[in-house]
Design goal:
The structure is a homodimer. Chain A is an alpha+beta fold. Chain A has helices at 17-27, 52-62, 71-76, 83-91, 107-120, 176-185, 202-207, 215-218, 221-224, 252-255, 289-301, 314-323, 328-339, 356-372, 380-388, 393-402, 419-435, 470-487, 503-525, and strands at residues 67-68, 100-102, 122-127, 146-151, 158-162, 167-171, 188-189, 225-232, 235-239, 264-271, 273-274, 278-286, 308-312, 346-354, 376-379, 405-415, 442-450, 454-464. In chain A, a hairpin with a 4-residue loop joins β5 (158-162) and β6. Chain A is globular, with a radius of gyration of 23 Å.
Chain lengths: 544, 544
C-alpha cells in the first residue's frame, strides 16, 4: 500500500479539471496543488526505544524473521487510514511510530510475543490490514516503555471449510480478497465487502464489528461469526463454532468489537454461503431522501431487501453526478432524470445476488414495492458504475487531499422512526461547525445498510482545508457530528468501530456500568494493560 | 399454577389405560398409582430467616404490599419446573424455600430492594414465570444469611410500540401471553412460543437466551433483542434500542443469558413483526432421521425453511403415535405410513406463517425440496394435532410422574456435520446410564430449530422411577448425557440455559478465560455476590 495514502501507488490519480472547478464553486477558495509530498525516505521518525533485552526476547518469541525494527517496517505500521492519520503521514513526521513490528507465524508465537511484552512493559497494537479510519491502530504506548505493532500477516489462509455446515475457519490475518479467492475455489463466499476490502483482514473485521457493502443481504461480520479464537496476555480463549447456544452470555459477541484491547483474534469461524450465480446491480431514482427511506423500510420489513441497498440523499446524488466528471453517461442520466421530474431526486443502488430464480422473484417483488413510492427504474448502468467504483473512494480521497480538500466519512444507525431527525441533526451540525470556521462544507449522506428495525446513515463531508489548522478543523467537525449523534440517541458508529476517535462518546452509549464491565474483563485478560492503549473506552486504559 | 406441578390445576389428567399398558411394555416394571400427593397446606417448610431489620427495610423498599413471607408465597417461589424441582415439591418438603418474596412495582423499587439485600447480605433470586427446567430459580442462599425471591410480577405490560421500527418495549415481568395479546391488538407479534409459553416472561426469556417453537422463522430471543435495561446491585445499565452498532463489544449479548446472576432485567426492546395472516401446519413422513436431517439442512440453506420445523426420530415418531392413545387418527396414519413403506419412518411437522402469497410460494418450494429426499406429504391433520398439543408436554409429564415414570428433556445444538454423531452419542449415553441401573429408558429425539450452519437436538427420556433413588437416577442420566455432549464438542444447552443443572459443564464451553470474564463482570456489577447464587458458572459464585 502507498505509504502515505491509500492503495496501489500506481493507481494514484489527480482530479479532472472539471471536478476541480466544480469543487471550487462548491467549497469556495482556490484549489491547491500540493507537491508530490514527502517520500518515505524523507520521513522523520522518532528513534526506536526497544531495550536490548526486550528485543532479544521478542526475536526469540516471534521466530525467525519475525521481528523488524527498520525504518520501512516501523513507518508502514505507524498509522491507519483515517483523516488524522493521513495528515500525519503527509506531514512527513511519522510520530508516534511503533518501536518494532513483530510478525508471529502462528498462535503460539502470538502468545509468546504477548508474554514478552507483558513482562517488559511494552504496549501491543494488533495490526491487520491497517485500514482503520478511526485511529484503531495508532501506536499509542500509554504509560508503557515502548510499543510494538503485532502484524497478523503471518496468520493467513483458509484453515478449514465445513461445506455441509456452511462454516469456514479463517486465520485472523487473512486478507478478505484471499479469503474470497480460497472460498470461491470451493464454490463459497463470505459475502463481506467493506470499502477497505482490498486490504482488510478477517480478524480486523471481527475486532471492529465490520459491515460490508452487501451486509444487508449476507449479514454483518458479527452475525456471521460462529466461533473465534483469541490470544490474550492472560491466556487463550477458544469458542468453538456453534449455530446457537443458551450457555450463558454470548462471549463471541464480547470478542467481536474488542478492537485489540482484550487480545489478538487469531482465528474465526464464519458462516459462508454458496457463491451467487446471478448478480444484478441496478439504479432507481426517487423523488427525495424521505420517500426513498420509506421505500427501503417497506422493502426490508417485507423480507424483500436486496443484498446491496444504498440510497444517496439529494446532495450525494448531485455530487456523484459531478464527480463522475460530467461524462456522457452522467449527462444522459441527468437529462433523463429531468425528463422524469426527478432532477433533484435521489439515486438508489440495488444489488441482487443469488440463484437466477430467486433473484428474478425478489427483483420483481422489490420493483413492485419501489414503484409504489414513485421510484423510477434507471436500469443497470448506474448499478454497474457503482460496482466499478465500489472501492474507489479512498483513492479519490487522496486526490482531494492533494487538492487541499478535507474529506472525511462517519456513520451511525438508528431506528426507522428516528432516522430523519438523526439525518437532519448530523447534517446541520457538520454544516454549522465548518461554515462557522469559514469553510462551508459539502455534506453528503446515504443509507448504507437496512435492518427490519432501522438503518445506517453514512455521511461524507468535504471542505476546503484550513492550512495550519487541518487537525483542529477536522476535530471541530467530528465533535459536532458526534455530539449530534449522541443527542439523537443513535449509535456513535455503525461499522467503523470506536478506535481513538470515538472514545469520548462511547460511555454515552454503554453507560458507566457497561464500560466498567469491559474494564473488568480487560483487567482479567490483560492484567498489565498492554493491549492497544488509548482505544475503545477511556476507562479501559486508565493509568494503572 | 399448580403448586407441585405444571399449569392449571383443573387440567390435571391421568394417562389413558392403553398408554399405561404400552409404557409398562416399553419401560418394564408395574405402573404405580401415586396418591393425590401432598396438599400445599401439608407441605413442610423451613422457618423463615429474615431478620426484623432486613424485613422492615425490604417492606419500605418494595413498596405497599410488595413483601410477603407467608407460607403460600414462599412455597410458590421455591422451585422451577425441572425434574428435581418436581421431585422436591412432590415429596412435600419444600426446602430450600425463599425467606420472603418481594414484588417491586417498578425499576426503582427493584433497585431499592437490591440495595437492601446487598446491605443485609441476602441472596436474591429473580423470579419471572418460575418455569426454569434447569434449576434457574432454586432459592440457594450460598454463603448469605437468607434468600429473597424477587418476583417480576409487578413489572408487566407493553410499554411502547414503535410500529414504524417494528420494535416493542416490554416490561421484564410481562408474561408471554400478555405480550402477544397486547401486540395482537396493534397487529403485531413477537413470534416467541417456547413450550413454557403459558407462564414464561419476557425478561426470563432474555435471561435464558430462550428459543421458541417458531424461532426458526422468527428468530431466537437473543436475535430479537434490540435494547435492554438491567438493574444490578452496582447500578443501572440502559442499552437503548439499536438496529446494529460497532461501538465495542455487544453488551446486550452479555445481558442475554445472564440468568439473574448479573442483575434483574426490568425491560427489553424486542423486534416484532406483523401478525401472520396465514398459518399452515402440516405433516410429512420421511424414511429415517438421517434423510430428514438432510432434507431440513437443504431447506434452511436454500432459504426455504418454515417458521416451525420439528423432525422426530423413529422412536419419537412411534411414541407420539402411541401417546396419542391409539385413536382413530393415529391408526389411519399408521396404516397410511405402512402403505407408503414408511412404517418405521420419521414424522416432520412444518409450520408456515406469513401472508398468503409468501406462505404459498415457500410451501411450494419447501415441498419440492422435501420430495427430493423422499418425503411423503401427510396433509394438515398431523400439523393441527401438533399445534393443539404444543404446550401439553408439561401436563403429560405430571401424569407420567403420577404413574411412577421419570421423564426429562435436554437439548443441545451442533453443526450439521456433527449432528448425527452427537445424536448417537447422547442416545447411547442415556440408554447405557439408565439400563445400567436396571431401568432401561425410552429415548426420543427431535430436531427442533434450524440454522444455516447447524441444528438443535431435543431429547426426551423416560424410565421407570427407582423408588428412593429418584434423584440419583436422574443425576446419572443427566451426567452421562452432558458428558456425551461435551465430548462431541456441542453446546451443553441450546435454549434451556445453564441454571444449576448445567453448571459443571459450562467451563468446557467457555474455557477458563471465558468464565473469568463473567466472574469479573459479576464482581463489578454485584460486588456483594448476592445475585442468584449457585447458577451459571461455578466461579461466579465461589465463596467470597
Amino acid at each position: 500500500m502507498r505509504w502515505d495514502g491509500w492503495g496501489d501507488p500506481g493507481r494514484r490519480t489527480a482530479l479532472a479539471p472539471g471536478v476541480r472547478r466544480a469543487l471550487s464553486r462548491e467549497l469556495g477558495g482556490p484549489s491547491r496543488t500540493e507537491g508530490t509530498g514527502v517520500s518515505i525516505d524523507g520521513a522523520e521518525l522518532p528513534p526506536g526505544r526497544l531495550p536490548g533485552t526486550a528485543r532479544a526476547a521478542l526475536v526469540a518469541a516471534a521466530g525467525p524473521g519475525g521481528l523488524r525494527d527498520d525504518r520501512g517496517a516501523r513507518i508502514r505500521h505507524a498509522a491507519g487510514r483515517g483523516y488524522p492519520d493521513l495528515l500525519r503521514l503527509r506531514s512527513g513526521r511519522v510520530d508516534p511510530a511503533p518501536d518494532a513490528v513483530a510478525t508471529p507465524a502462528d498462535a503460539d508465537a502470538v502468545a509468546a510475543v504477548l508474554e514478552v511484552c507483558s513482562g517488559h512493559g511494552l504496549a501491543v497494537v494488533p495490526f491487520g490490514g491497517g485500514t482503520s479510519v478511526v485511529g484503531g491502530v495508532e501506536p499509542i504506548s500509554g504509560d508503557h516503555a515502548g510499543v510494538l505493532a503485532l502484524s497478523l500477516a503471518g496468520l493467513s489462509g483458509l484453515r478449514a471449510l465445513d461445506e455441509r455446515s456452511a462454516t469456514a475457519t479463517l486465520a485472523g490475518g487473512t486478507p478478505l480478497p484471499e479469503a474470497e479467492r480460497e472460498l470461491a475455489r470451493r464454490g463459497f463466499t463470505l459475502g463481506h465487502f467493506p470499502q477497505s476490502f482490498e486490504y482488510a483482514t478477517v480478524g480486523g473485521c471481527v475486532a471492529t464489528r465490520s459491515a460490508g457493502q452487501a451486509s444487508t443481504g449476507y449479514g454483518r461480520i458479527d452475525e456471521l461469526l460462529r466461533g473465534v479464537e483469541l490470544v490474550a496476555p492472560a491466556g487463550r480463549l477458544t469458542l468453538g463454532a456453534r449455530p446457537a447456544s443458551a450457555a450463558g452470555p454470548e462471549l463471541r459477541q464480547l470478542v467481536a468489537g474488542s478492537e485489540g484491547v482484550l487480545g489478538v483474534i487469531v482465528s474465526a469461524d464464519v458462516e459462508v454461503c454458496q457463491r451467487p450465480l446471478t448478480r444484478h446491480y441496478e439504479g432507481w431514482a426517487l423523488a427525495g431522501f424521505r420517500e426513498g427511506a420509506d421505500a427501503l423500510r417497506t422493502l426490508v420489513q417485507a423480507g424483500a431487501a436486496p443484498e446491496v441497498a444504498r440510497l444517496s440523499d439529494e446532495a450525494e446524488t448531485q455530487t456523484t453526478l459531478m464527480l463522475s466528471g460530467g461524462g456522457t453517461g452522467s449527462a444522459v442520466l441527468r437529462g433523463y432524470l429531468r425528463l422524469r421530474r426527478l432532477a433533484d431526486g435521489c439515486l438508489l443502488i440495488c444489488g441482487w445476488e443469488g440463484d437466477a430464480a430467486d433473484v428474478g422473484r425478489r427483483r420483481h417483488e422489490g420493483a413492485r414495492l419501489l414503484r409504489r413510492f414513485g421510484a423510477v427504474a434507471l436500469g443497470t448502468p448506474p448499478g454497474q458504475a457503482w460496482e466499478a467504483g465500489r472501492y474507489a473512494a479512498p483513492y479519490l480521497r487522496d486526490a482531494l487531499l492533494d487538492d487541499g480538500v478535507m474529506v472525511e466519512t462517519l456513520e451511525t444507525a438508528s431506528s426507522w422512526s428516528g432516522l430523519e431527525r438523526l439525518y437532519l441533526r448530523v447534517r446541520t451540525a457538520l454544516t454549522d461547525a465548518l461554515a462557522g470556521r469559514g469553510t462551508p462544507p459539502l455534506v453528503l449522506c446515504h443509507i448504507s445498510h437496512l435492518y427490519r428495525t432501522g438503518a445506517s446513515l453514512y455521511f461524507t463531508f468535504m471542505a476546503r482545508q484550513q492550512p495550519g489548522a487541518e487537525l483542529a478543523q477536522w476535530q471541530a467537525a467530528k465533535s459536532a457530528a458526534s455530539e449530534a449523534i449522541v443527542a439523537a440517541g443513535a449509535t456513535i458508529t455503525h461499522h467503523h468501530a470506536v478506535g481513538r476517535d470515538h472514545r469520548p462518546w462511547l460511555e454515552a452509549e454503554t453507560g458507566a456500568l457497561g464500560l466498567q464491565a469491559l474494564a473488568a474483563v480487560k483487567q482479567r485478560w490483560d492484567p498489565a494493560g498492554i493491549m492497544n492503549p488509548g482505544k475503545l473506552g477511556s476507562q479501559l486504559t486508565a493509568p494503572r
